[in-house]
Specification:
The complex is a heterodimer.
Chain A lengths: L7 E5 L3 H12 L3 E6 L13 E2 L4 E2 H11 L5 E5 L3 E7 L2 E6 L4 E4 L1 E4 L3 E3 L16 E3 H10 L12 E8 L15 H15 L4 E6 L9 H10 L4 E4 L2 E6 L5 E7 L4 E7 L1 E6 L1 E3 L1 H10 L26 E3 L9 H23 L1
Parallel strand pairs in A: 1-2, 1-9, 2-5, 9-20, 11-18, 12-13, 12-18, 13-14
Antiparallel strand pairs in A: 3-4, 6-7, 7-8, 10-19, 15-16, 16-17
Helix pairs in contact in A: 1-2, 1-7, 3-4, 4-5
Chain B lengths: L7 H24 L2 H11 L2 H15 L2 H6 L1 H28 L7 H5 L1 H4 L7 H29 L14 H28 L6 H9 L4 H22 L7 H13 L10 H9 L5 H5 L1 H4 L8 H9 L5 H5 L6 H5 L6 H10 L11 H5 L30 E4 L2 H4 L2 H14 L3 E3 L10 H5 L3 H18 L3 E4 L2 H9 L6 E4 H11 L10 E4 L13 H10 L1 E3 L22 H15 L6 E4 L2 H8 L6 E3 H8 L25
Parallel strand pairs in B: 1-2, 1-3, 3-4, 5-6, 5-7, 7-8
Helix pairs in contact in B: 1-11, 1-13, 3-12, 5-8, 8-9, 9-10, 9-11, 12-13, 13-16, 16-19, 22-30, 26-27, 27-30
């Protein structure tokens, strides 16, 4: 008989990592309880429109993920938040927001990330000027099929600010969120698809095109879509009397300051450790790294293990990741969990 | 007995220090500017003289301010200073009354017991001896505290005490030796002759019971004299120079002399008046939040006194002014630091030669820049429409657009005829350049903005940023009234120009250093807040307010250290669990917003939220933001 057979596993978080991990664990014979704090599973993927690098519709990925978790061994419980974890001999007790104590043999944390709250960079004017939006807001606009200014006009000049809340010691986030660059490239191209004559500017520090097909996408955005990339950080945003945005930025390649009038500004919000993850880390003494994400037990061969026996990590609760890496990471956790069951039974 | 060779060290020391004090006073007086000389002369024949005597008594002897901060520390300083003073005063009287002649040389009083060993046996003499012993016991109790403080600073309630230089150490040792050696010398003499009161008498008789008292007494009289002599001779080279200097400083200050922004004799007096008591170290947030313990004002003063290179120390400071307020001597620490910053690359001179140490050269100033090319010649001609009120947001407010928008909303609602002069980005107020010591460049910007303000014909200038406010008030020559927006809003409320509803929110207020300690505006912000919300005290109000950590004044510390200061400050300010942490400075807001869980807002934002329907002034027309032409006097 398989060592993982009939073992009880609680997966906390019903986003990409949680759904994939739950599905794979169920297939390995575990009895899985999936806890999701919101009213339905799917996590951030629910809100995206198209996914890089192949501009696939995110609904396809969402459908796959939901199907993965549709298994006889999985109980999905939505609207439930995990409060803390407690070791009791070999088992781990998950205390929920509803006051329950779920006894399990192992716990997989897939608490994911929160988008950086752009209001913390007040100089960009998010939530102050109507036409300053976040990358997530833009995805919603794409999904609704209409990219419009607050006054209903179609924007003609659109700017993208990279690294909002990433690589910024002023907001205490020194790390790179990895995805915002390629997301901006993708969104800039989508804008051009929605608004033919739009002029699109990206204000970047570095273009970090590390993933498969990213560089190709970046090249295509310039050659086929005419996206203009300006190296420099936006210093401040204000509005004029016609509620156009005035953006001050330094073009560090040309070595001169720029002042541009734009119709809309998109802030590429970075990824931060989720608040629910942070609360769990605090209540259950789980170690976090300097960037506040969960610190894996080993950077090379223990990225799914935590400092607590029987508690594992999957996905972006350990670091910013794209969907491909998140799903791989979620699959990998199953190997660590079954390994763990084998060892405690031996 | 008239004389004994052991008094020679004391006499040498005493005459040396008296001559030195006179020479140094003359040097300082001559170095004062002409107006300051006049002030001092006028002060000498006027009220300041009496005030100074009172202050010298209360602060230099009793140490009232230190008592207020810390009782044990105050007692320590008082027993040493006031005790020693009493010992000299009553010693002189004693020698005059009970000695063999009147108007004795000082050593006759200081070593009275040696020359009058059988004094104090009966009646009034015994009572007087008792008094002298009491004073000595008083000093010794303070000395005990000082010794304990040196090794365990926490005993007297201090987190940190100052570190010492070698000369300070020798002077400190000789100071510590003075009173115990006096105690032993007097005790042995008393023991030998059967005189002395409760302290010297009883200690003396018990010592004399097993030791040869007369033979033992003599070396201790020598030790006592040598300790005094050494202390006096080293005094000008050590922190104890503060004892004579402080008297001069108090007198100069009461005569109306201030540091300003120029080095000179008054700045030197301030430097030498620092006793290194260490109170500034405990007050400093760089110390208790960021763990930086070597740059506090006591160390700056020490470095300046010893003509060391103080550039690193001078630059590593938030310039919040907390130490200025806490300094028991009232030294203008932040202005002195500003001058030390400006003196820039000055050579650390006067290190060689003992003579130079006693009479150091003037603290050098950075030479005037040779180039007179204007740095901002490219600025366009200043153009501005006519208006009654000018609103100048400043660069920091442009980085916190919510504050700027709130002010526009308030100004619109008030019906004031105003112009937003830096709406599309204006010219800097000049303060950052001044803080960096680039006065000439700053002057160019000041001239530009001044032209703009003159041309507008306005009577009032409103700023949102206290950093701009201070420079407009102090470094511009304007014929307009400069108001911070909290003052302006308060006037609008009093005049009834805006009507505000009461927000059911608890608000704690952070007093920005620039607005509070540096500009003296404490009440207007609080009164505005009380008008619109539930105002809560924080324990760090008014003069005791904290620095947010975002200060432009410090370019040496890391973001982590700034964040740590900000986090600690937010933690203290939100202890009463407010709904909003209010402030009145865009820089404070921005710094706190990055680390605070409690929402942070400028008072202008809170007022804008509380803004109910505007009061329609007669004949009001148009709604365009920049086009108000209605006149509404707001003063």
């Amino acid at each position: 008989m398989h060592k993982a057979d009939k073992k009880r596993v609680v997966v906390i978080g019903g986003g990409a990592a949680g759904l994939e991990a739950a599905g794979q664990l169920a297939r390995a014979g575990c009895i899985v309880t999936l806890l999701e704090k919101e009213s339905e599973t799917g996590g951030h993927v629910k809100n995206w429109y198209h996914l890089f690098p192949d501009i696939r519709n995110s609904d396809e990925v969402l459908k796959y993920l939901v199907r993965q978790a549709d298994h006889g061994n999985i109980t999905v419980r939505t609207g439930v938040t995990a409060g803390s974890l407690e070791k009791n001999g070999k088992s781990v007790i998950v205390k929920t927001s509803r006051g329950e104590r779920i006894i399990s043999d192992a716990v997989v944390l897939a608490t994911g990330f929160d988008l950086f709250d752009s209001r913390r960079k007040e100089e960009y004017g998010y939530d102050i000027y109507h036409n300053v939006i976040s990358s997530a807001d833009l995805e919603v606009m794409f999904r609704e099929g209409s990219v419009k200014r607050h006054d209903g006009e179609i924007p003609q000049r659109i700017g993208f600010v990279h690294c909002v809340g990433s690589r910024d010691s002023k907001v205490n986030n020194l790390y790179c969120s990895k995805l915002c660059c390629v997301t901006a490239v993708k969104q800039a191209m989508e804008i051009k698809k929605h608004i033919e004559n739009a002029r699109v500017y990206c204000f970047y520090m570095d273009m970090r095109m590390g993933g498969a097909l990213y560089e190709e996408l970046y090249k295509e955005s310039q050659e086929s879509y005419g996206i203009v990339y300006i190296r420099g950080k936006v210093s401040e945003v204000s509005d004029n009397i016609d509620s156009r945005l005035i953006v001050k930025v330094e073009d560090t390649l040309a070595g001169r300051p720029l002042r541009m009038e734009l119709d809309m500004l998109v802030l590429m919000a970075g990824m931060e450790m989720s608040e629910s993850g942070m609360r769990l880390a605090e209540s259950s003494d789980l170690q976090t790294a300097e960037n506040r994400f969960f610190a894996p037990a080993d950077h090379h061969f223990g990225s799914n293990r935590s400092n607590m026996d029987g508690v594992f990590y999957a996905g972006t609760c350990t670091a910013p990741m794209n969907i491909t890496d998140t799903i791989s990471h979620a699959r990998a956790v199953v190997a660590d969990v079954t390994d763990y069951f084998r060892n405690i039974n031996a | 007995m008239k004389f004994d060779p052991f008094v020679i060290p004391f006499n040498i020391g005493l005459f040396f220090i008296l001559i030195y004090a006179v020479v140094r006073s003359i040097i300082w007086f001559r170095a004062l500017s002409r107006p300051d000389k006049l002030r001092l002369q006028r002060g000498f024949f006027g009220r300041p003289f009496g005030q100074s005597l009172k202050e010298i008594f209360l602060e230099s002897l009793i140490h009232r301010k230190i008592f207020k901060t810390n009782f044990l520390l105050g007692y320590m300083h008082m027993s040493l200073a006031f005790g020693w003073f009493l010992l000299i005063l009553f010693g002189t009287i004693e020698a005059d009354i009970f000695g063999d002649s009147h108007l004795n040389p000082p050593y006759k009083a200081i070593f009275f017991k040696y020359f009058n060993p059988v004094h104090g046996m009966t009646g009034i003499e015994a009572a007087y001896s008792f008094l002298m012993d009491l004073i000595l016991a008083f000093i010794l109790s303070g000395l005990l505290l000082a010794v304990i403080k040196r090794f365990y600073s926490r005993v007297v309630g201090m987190r940190k005490t100052t570190k010492l230089k070698t000369l300070d150490r020798i002077a400190l040792t000789s100071l510590w030796m003075i009173f115990p050696s006096r105690l032993l010398a007097e005790s042995f003499t008393s023991g030998a002759y059967g005189s002395g009161s409760f302290l010297t008498g009883s200690l003396g008789s018990s010592l004399a019971s097993f030791l040869p008292a007369i033979e033992m007494a003599y070396p201790f009289w020598w030790l006592y004299s040598i300790s005094l002599g050494t202390f006096f001779i080293l005094l000008p080279l050590t922190r104890y120079m503060h004892i004579p200097t402080e008297l001069f400083l108090i007198f100069a200050r009461n005569s109306g002399i201030r540091t300003g922004d120029q080095p000179g004799a008054f700045m030197e007096m301030q430097i030498y008046s620092c006793s290194s008591c260490g109170i500034c170290i405990d007050a400093c947030q760089l110390n208790f939040s960021a763990g930086i313990t070597n740059i506090q004002s006591a160390y700056l003063m020490k470095g300046l006194r010893n003509a060391e290179d103080v550039r690193d120390i001078a630059s590593n400071c938030l310039m919040c002014g907390r130490c200025d307020i806490k300094c028991p001597v009232g030294i203008e620490l932040t202005p002195v630091r500003m001058i030390a910053r400006r003196s820039g690359d000055s050579e650390a001179g006067s290190k060689n030669g003992i003579w130079k140490k006693y009479f150091p050269e003037r603290h050098p100033v950075a030479p005037e820049k040779q180039s007179h090319e204007p740095a901002y010649g490219w600025l366009p001609e200043a153009k501005v429409p006519k208006a009654d009120v000018l609103y100048y947001a400043g660069c920091m407010t442009h980085l916190t657009p919510a504050v700027k928008n709130a002010m526009v909303k308030i100004l619109d609602a008030s019906g004031v005829n105003y112009d937003f002069i830096d709406r599309d980005g204006g010219v800097c107020c000049g303060r950052p350049l001044m803080l960096a010591g680039q006065d000439r460049e700053a002057r160019e910007l000041i001239n530009y903005n001044s032209q703009l303000i003159w041309k507008s014909g306005a009577t009032t200038l409103v700023t949102s940023c206290p950093i701009c406010y201070k420079v407009f008030r102090e470094s511009y020559y304007l014929n307009v009234e400069v108001l911070h927006h909290t003052q302006f809003i308060r006037r609008l409320i009093l005049k009834g120009s805006i009507r505000l509803s009461f927000l059911r929110k608890k608000v704690s207020y952070h007093t920005p250093s620039e607005l509070g300690r540096r500009s003296g505006i404490y009440d207007d912000p609080k009164l505005v807040l009380m008008h619109v919300a539930r105002f809560q005290k924080t324990g760090f109000d008014d003069e005791n307010s904290l620095c947010c950590g975002g200060s432009l004044g410090n370019t040496r510390i890391s973001h982590d250290q700034k964040n740590k200061i900000a986090l600690d400050a937010v933690h203290e300010l939100t202890k009463a669990d407010p709904d909003i942490l209010a402030t009145a400075c865009p820089l404070c807001k921005k710094t706190f917003a990055g680390v605070s869980d409690t929402p942070v807002a400028d008072i202008a934002e809170i007022v804008a939220e509380a803004l109910s329907l505007p009061v329609p002034p007669a004949g009001r027309k148009g709604k365009k933001i920049l086009k108000h032409r209605e006149t509404a006097n707001i003063d």
